[in-house]
Amino acid sequence: MTSLQSIATEGKDMSMSPVVVAPGLVLDETLYEVAAEGVLHHTPDRAPLTWETFTSPRRWWIIPDTDCLGFRAELTLHADRARTIRLNRWYRPTHRHNRTSSGKAVRVLCCHGRVGLHGYRCAGGGLSGERKCL
Predict the structure, then answer these.
(1) Is pTM, for the whole model, over 0.70?
(2) For the chain, which terminus, N or C, has the lower number of CB atoms within 10 Å?
(3) DSSP readout, 77-115?
(4) What is the fold of 20-94+102-112?
(5) What percent of the chain stands above pLDDT 90?
């Protein structure tokens, strides 16, 4: 187990069963470990992601597509004028901007509070695209 993995899973009952946060949104240990490692890697100044925060239904928002069907869930970990740190969980493909995203992606999004285009990174690493943050 890497140091990132051991910190990300510290204090979590590793025998936890999958949690249904909302209809169609099931969170499990595998997703948690990927998300926790991504948060730790991309926002090292923040406290590690906990299982309780990750599986709290009140913290997740379901984002609808143009047909009013939920295609993405968002968990905001931090938001102020300086930056926003958010986990996005796609559970249906999106066709926005003539692009398709995976229905299995977990992305750590960290935007800084400046007007302009900023990259965002997948939990697995690598620049994934651009997003305008205001």
Answers:
(1) no
(2) C
(3) EEESSSEEEEEEEESS---GGG----TT-EEEEEEESSS
(4) Nuclear Transport Factor 2; Chain: A, (3.10.450)
(5) 19
